Amino acid sequence: MKLADMEPVLTRIAAWDYSQARDPLYEFSSFLRAAAAAQSELPQIEARLLRMLAPQAAITLAGRDYVCRELSVIGTAASVAVLARMLTDRATADTARYALARIPVPEAADALRNRLQAAPAEVRAGIANALGERRDGKSVVALTGLIASSDAGVATAALTALARIGDEKALAAIGSAAPNAAVRREEVLRAWVRCAGAVAAGGDKATAKSIYQRLIAPNEPAMIRIAALEGLAAVDAKAALPVLSRELGSTSSEIQAAAIRLLNRVPGAEVTALFRKRYPGLSPIGQVRVLSALADRGDAAARPTVTAAVKSATAEVRTAALEALGGIGDASSVSTLAEAATNAPAEEQAAARESLAMLRGANVDTAVAAAIASSAGKMKLELIRAAGERASLESADVLMQIAQGSDAEAALAAIRALRNAANPEQAPALLDAVMKIANATQRREAAMTLASVMKRARKPAIGSVLAAFGSSADKPIKLTLLDVMGQVSADEALPVLRAGLKDPDPDIARAAILALTAWQTPAPLPDLLELARTDSNATRQILALRGYMKVVSMPSERSAGESVALLKQVWPLAKLQAEKRALLALLPLYPTAEALRMAEAAVGDAAVSREARTAADTIRGLGVQ
């Protein structure tokens, strides 16, 4: 593609307005990127764009703006004179100075500098900003003269530009303006701090440090002092330590918070010791901030201070201390946290519970297990909860004992905790608990725990469950064990479940259907389909149909077409509105042509016409595979 081929596009750009489609802009920008990459025709392209900016050129303001932006990318010294002329026109000054700020030739900076004083105030501010963007050191003198401008926009732009230039002359210029700045003194000081940062970034940390040390004085505005503290800490952390230490006792909440934050960035035992030393004399809010900082540092040396803070008279301090213990506590913290989790007000209780779950380190789980064994009442329940959240294997044995004990509330909590804390080796003990528990709620929870634990094994050992089912004459236990078989989904249990489908006891047959419905693989699909087709009991037939649909919807390696074929087999069996709706809801999961035909065919069924239309529209929207 050559520049000559772009003439129709440039004609459209000349007439383009912001309200119109940007197609010609995208087309020319794409051409320009290719030309720049190939270094092809760039002088000719630049010259052609400059002709579009000629005084008599027929071009919209939007078109001029686009052309200037492209010149900011490819422009050279050849563009400077045309763009400089545009600086005198308020309508085009912004786009011209935008380009001049970015064209990397000294002539562009000269043009901006030469127009700075004579330009109208609103244009002058933009030119000052452009000089700042270029970090033009030659403009420092001219910009300094604008700091005292009666036009606030010009003065602000001059300060911003000097701060961006960021050399020693700019720093001195802003500093010389500070004593005489009355109304805008804080603005001048902000620019001074920013300029010092630029000077430091350039390598002159000593000069920047001297400015920061002047601006941390107590008589300076709080935000300036904070910025100066941040700068000082960045250029000389060691020199900042005594200053930050002093500010820990500041009466300004903002300055104190900044001091704590900045101190916390300094690694090592020295700062931890400083926090501990100053902690007792701080206000409650200061203590909260220091406790949070100590938690972030994770330094075990702070543990005594944090532990003592749990007994503070201020609720917010106690909460912060309990939260901090989660990060720096150890086995000795278990009793403190358990006490708070049991008896403290809601916010502190929540913090204590979270920290109990988070505690790390040697012997923590052993301490939790010992505390469970030796405690009673609500504290025992809190510790059991913590053991479950921690997935504490060390607590599994004591939890098993409690699960089989006479305290119903503790037993139920232990059963739930074992869901995370037990391992597959403890499945036999859990099965024994299932067989012995008389309370239906506890037995159901124990069954869920047993299934969850068994599933963690690479190959779940379902044999003991099958043997227990075969030997038990207790119907509630047999129903529970059928549920476990379904949750575990081990193929060895399928013959038992298939036999259960034919059991004369309707409850056993129903439980077998529900177990197959919970299956995690497609293995029971033929059984459920056969039952849905042939069972004379309408309730079991519906259960089997719903179970079939649920198993089909489980993740599998089938293709979308194969899944639709499975659903198509049971469509004639769906007599009730609920089953038809359920089938239609599944079809968009497999957006094939056959799924679309099924949905479209169901539109004629008044009972599910709306759902069928929705399914068909969704499949079309997804794109038919």
**How many beta-strand runs?**
0
Structural class: mainly alpha
Radius of gyration: 38 Å
Which residues sit in consecutive blocks of at least 5 with pLDDT less than 50?
none
Q: Helical amount among residues, as a percent range?
A: over 70%
Binned strand content:
under 5%
Keywords:
625 residues; mainly alpha
Give a verbal description of the structure.
The chain is mainly alpha-helical. It is built from 38 helices and no strands. It has helices at residues 7-14, 23-38, 42-52, 61-74, 77-86, 90-102, 106-116, 121-134, 140-146, 152-165, 168-177, 185-201, 205-215, 222-235, 237-247, 253-264, 269-278, 284-297, 303-309, 315-328, 334-343, 346-358, 364-374, 377-390, 396-403, 408-421, 427-436, 440-455, 463-471, 475-488, 494-501, 506-517, 525-534, 538-553, 560-570, 577-586, 593-602, 609-622. It is flat and about 105 Å long. The model has no long low-confidence stretch (mean pLDDT 94).
